[in-house]
Each structure stands twice: as C-alpha cells, then as structure tokens.
Amino acid sequence: VHVDGMDVLKVREVAKEAIARERRGDGPTLVAFETYRFRGHSLADPDELRDPAEKAHYAERDPIVALKKAT
C-alpha cells in the first residue's frame, strides 16, 4: 500500500487497517510511506543541492502544520 506520508490522518487510517488485517489473521501488510526529508542527511550536510522552490513546495505541505489546521 502506498501512502502519502505527508498526510498524518491518512497514515493513521492505513496503519489502523494494516493492524486490523494482521489481527484478523489475514497476514502482514507492506506499507510504503512517501514523504520528504526537510533537512540534510546530517548536521554536516549543508543541503545546498535541492532547489529552493522544491523546499518551499514541501514546506507548505508540512504534516505537523497540516495536522494542527485539521484538528
């Protein structure tokens, strides 16, 4: 199952379904969460290679901010 990892409520929904499936004895579920890394790989990574427009696009989809707006 592919999930928009930027959508916290959708992640919760899919996780609940996967857990219920396992508990029913229907086997495991492979869940792929597609998300965005907001920072470099480490504190030593200056993160200069990504386009600022790309960073801005994903900053607008920040899952924490979106969840606060939804609740």
From TrEMBL:
Pfam families: E1_dh. InterPro entries: DH_E1 (IPR001017), PDH_E1_Alpha_Subunit (IPR050642), THDP-binding (IPR029061). Transmembrane segments: none annotated. One of its GO terms (molecular function) is pyruvate dehydrogenase (acetyl-transferring) activity. One of its GO terms (biological process) is pyruvate decarboxylation to acetyl-CoA. Keywords: Oxidoreductase, Thiamine pyrophosphate. Residues 1-69 form the Dehydrogenase E1 component domain. The keyword Oxidoreductase applies. Its cofactor is thiamine diphosphate. Coiled coil: none annotated. PANTHER family: PYRUVATE DEHYDROGENASE E1 COMPONENT SUBUNIT ALPHA (PTHR11516:SF60), PYRUVATE DEHYDROGENASE E1 COMPONENT, ALPHA SUBUNIT BACTERIAL AND ORGANELLAR (PTHR11516). This is Dehydrogenase E1 component domain-containing protein. It comes from Taxus chinensis (Chinese yew).
